[in-house]
Amino acid sequence: MRAMVQLSYGSPEVFVMQEVAKPTPGNKELLIRIKAAKVGPSDCAFRKGNPFMIKLLYGLSRPKFPIGGCELAGVIEAVGEEVQHFKPGDRVLGMSVKNFGAFAEYKCLSADSPLALIPDNITFEEAVGVCDGGATALTFLRDKAHLREGQKVLIYGASGSVGIYAVQLARYYGAEVTGVCSGANEGLVRNAGADFVLDYKKEDFTKADKAYDIIFDAVGKCSFSDCRRVLSDKGMYLTTAPRLSTLMQMMWTSMFKGRRAVFAAAGLMQNKSNLNFLMDLTNNGTLHAVIDRRFPLERLPDAHQYVETERKRGNVIIQL
Questions:
Q1: N or C terminus of the chain: which is more exposed, having fewer CB within 10 Å?
Q2: pTM for the structure as a whole
């Protein structure tokens, strides 16, 4: 099979197209013919090995798993003898959070992995797009912040691959939503459900008079210290960026009942229930995939370069 292989950390040019052995499913595994994957900031971080924590976990000198990519959608080609709930021909959405492998034509996943059937009216690209940002946003807003109806939530980076789904989910849970993005993306964020939209180039929300119950930094551009003044008395600052300062603030603020800083390794917290929930919300029209650009597998380096411009709106999809 064809796969984009990364033999070292570095710029997007580290990816090389190679012919590698097609995997064979074990007794409890599914063999998936991949139809769509995605590229986001987390994929770029793993490619670069930055922050350094990535190298500590996944290989100091070079990636332990040379085929990257976590989220994938495709068709089951074969199943192991002990697989009960999936069959060949099923359209599935999955996450390979332990050893990646989505940037290839085939991937074997354990039947216990985060997996969900894709409804007939949802495309592979839409499914993997919603999974990309939706799973992360769901973990932070529902599971960490316990978002409730009537709360005021601000989402920084509201037009990105996590932020655009955070806006939609916050609206679903009945919150008052303020999105922060560039002025060019105001319409997109309003259409996603934001009650208010701030242009970060013109307005600094940290200096305004309004307080928020939840501030979700979906792009890792602000800090708990920046946001503390505009958090309510028991407000929560959430961030997708695992900076050392944030981890220290998490430990410190967890000892008190006031404002708190929270980070979560959302990818490692996913499960079948989450993916099924996201597919249900997409199927009934509550969630809408937002896809910016599509690239074929062989142009994976171009997809990484585009993501690193920090100008994308929603998802960048890899087509197979």
A1: N
A2: 0.92
